């Protein structure tokens, strides 16, 4: 009874504040004591108070992704909508059959090819949540971005991994705790029970509020259940790691995904609440020599320990390599370059190192919202994803790049296909051809 009174008092307060968009309301600790969270709905975004566990404080506020708001509004009318963080799941006591139930993460913490030898990756890039957070257009923009991601995941069945390749948030616009936006972005994966992993872009950690450094955000992401990892401390950046994709039985690793942190360019000495490791924060927007060395050494050691069982590898990060200019200038490419290439201002040889790995067949990045081409240079496909978010510059149609790996056990090979999936649900497999053009070559990375 006490809880019900508190719930209604809060709802009352919420409705009294309807004119303010995106307002965040502290929720009484009383609600958290049950171990599960209780939801209230504000004028635009739902706020959820989660139970204690997995490093989450009982006072923390969360927003429910927009596509679930109607469900929640309904259920608050009837009773409680509960979010049980410990189970990575949401339980709605009201048995609302119409709602799409969020799925628990059921995988065994191993990425695996399916029984028919497939592994599908959706690359979501440059979503830029949190822009104009105190403006109604900012809130709408984030809702739009969530809709894009939902449409893509509704259209693409059986996505095995969502890779967020940077600029998930526009940290420099976020005055509040950036993790609120972070959870909103990754919710599309978490609510559907799809494994996800992230790497950082140049906009992810400029939050003026605390708790928004790269280390904080990556810790938070990992706590939420992602497959992301921390790179070694003595290597530039934070999100440098690899992911293994195993055979259907989870025994032999068949593919590796190399994830790099291409830097943030922010020289701020940001306070780091969680681990106070300022040394992580390097002021670069390129992949440094020590990252290349880390990749080289780690791969050598990996192959040594795994008897070269890898058939195919790819690499994902945010800012394109300089070789993206070379491939566009000199090779036949497929897709658009409406934006020119804002590549990494320094080249410390990652591409040359990739060429020494015969399994490395693909690199895919984000950063340039008007680019979505792929081209092959020296046996490696260099691709742009497709701008996924309504946030960030540009109004090019939003979408995602999809990769489908195929394992052929008879040949003992893995190959892959890629296509674009748009916010309309449209699928584009054959992108427009672009021939090399010696009269119109880009030779310097644009800013
Ligand atoms: C949201 O998307 C709709 C079209 O789907 C568009 O008309 C509107 O301008 C978008 N709003 C923002 C703030 O981006
Ligand atoms: C930001 O929110 C996260 C998760 O809700 C929390 O762990 C962190 O302590 C918060 N940071 C600050 C500075 O409030
Ligand atoms: C980082 O430290 C490890 C372990 O001490 C070492 O093996 C490695 O060479 C170092 N890497 C760099 C780039 O300094
Ligand atoms: C394109 O190819 C030409 C000829 O191989 C080479 O000289 C030039 O450096 C390439 N362009 C770029 C931007 O690398
Ligand atoms: C690039 O420009 C062309 C021609 O204006 C347009 O058709 C295409 O959709 C644009 N590309 C992207 C990535 O939106
Ligand atoms: C592998 O070989 C078996 C037996 O010849 C055949 O039935 C199967 O279709 C082959 N699988 C693939 C992926 O080609």
TrEMBL record:
Gene Ontology CC terms, in alphabetical order: cytoplasm
Region (Disordered): 65-107
Keyword Signal: yes
Keyword annotations: Signal
Superkingdom classification of source: Eukaryota
Coiled coil residues, start to end: none
Ranges of Low complexity composition bias in the record: 80-100
Domain Calcineurin-like phosphoesterase: 119-370
Signal peptide: 1-22
GO molecular function annotation: hydrolase activity, acting on ester bonds
Biased composition (Basic and acidic residues): 67-77
PANTHER family: METALLOPHOSPHOESTERASE DOMAIN-CONTAINING PROTEIN (PTHR32440:SF11), PHOSPHATASE DCR2-RELATED-RELATED (PTHR32440)
Protein name: Calcineurin-like phosphoesterase domain-containing protein
Naturally occurring in which organism (per UniProt): Polysphondylium violaceum
């Amino acid at each position: 009874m006490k809880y019900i009174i508190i719930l209604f008092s809060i709802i009352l307060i919420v409705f009294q504040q309807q004119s303010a968009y995106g307002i965040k309301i502290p929720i009484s600790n009383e609600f958290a004591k049950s171990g599960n969270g209780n939801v209230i709905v504000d004028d635009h975004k739902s706020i959820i108070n989660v139970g204690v566990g997995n490093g989450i404080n009982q006072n923390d506020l969360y927003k429910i992704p927009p596509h679930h708001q109607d469900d929640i509004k309904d259920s608050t009318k009837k009773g409680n909508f509960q979010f049980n963080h410990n189970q990575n799941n949401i339980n709605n006591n009201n048995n609302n059959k119409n709602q799409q139930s969020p799925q628990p993460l059921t995988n065994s913490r191993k990425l695996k090819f399916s029984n028919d030898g497939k592994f599908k990756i959706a690359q979501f890039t440059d979503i830029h949540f949190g822009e104009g957070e105190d403006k109604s257009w900012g809130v709408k923009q984030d809702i739009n971005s969530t809709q894009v991601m939902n449409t893509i995941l509704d259209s693409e069945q059986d996505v095995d991994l969502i890779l967020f390749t940077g600029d998930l948030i526009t940290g420099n616009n976020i005055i509040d705790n950036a993790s609120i936006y972070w959870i909103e972005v990754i919710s599309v994966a978490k609510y559907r029970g799809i494994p996800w992993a992230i790497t950082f872009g140049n906009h992810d950690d400029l939050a003026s509020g605390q708790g928004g450094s790269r280390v904080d955000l990556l810790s938070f992401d990992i706590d939420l259940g992602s497959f992301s990892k921390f790179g070694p401390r003595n290597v530039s950046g934070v999100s440098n790691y690899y992911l293994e994709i195993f055979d259907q039985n989870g025994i032999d690793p068949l593919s590796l995904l190399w994830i790099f942190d291409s830097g943030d360019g922010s020289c701020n000495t940001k306070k780091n609440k969680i681990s106070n490791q300022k040394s992580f924060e390097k002021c670069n927007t390129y992949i440094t020599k020590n990252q290349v060395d880390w990749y080289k050494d780690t791969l050598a050691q990996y192959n040594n320990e795994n008897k070269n069982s890898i058939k195919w590898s790819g690499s994902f990060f945010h800012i394109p390599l300089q070789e993206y200019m070379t491939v566009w200038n000199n090779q036949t490419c497929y897709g658009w370059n409406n934006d020119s290439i804002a590549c990494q201002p320094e080249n410390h040889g990652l591409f040359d190192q990739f060429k020494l790995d015969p399994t490395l067949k693909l690199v895919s990045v984000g950063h340039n919202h008007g680019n979505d081409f792929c081209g092959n240079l020296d046996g490696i496909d260099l691709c742009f994803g497709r701008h996924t978010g309504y946030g960030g510059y540009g109004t090019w149609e939003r979408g995602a790049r999809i990769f489908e790996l195929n394992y052929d056990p008879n040949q003992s090979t893995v190959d892959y296909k890629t296509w674009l999936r748009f916010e309309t649900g449209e699928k584009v497999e054959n992108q427009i051809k672009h021939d090399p053009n010696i009269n119109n070559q880009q030779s310097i990375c644009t800013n």
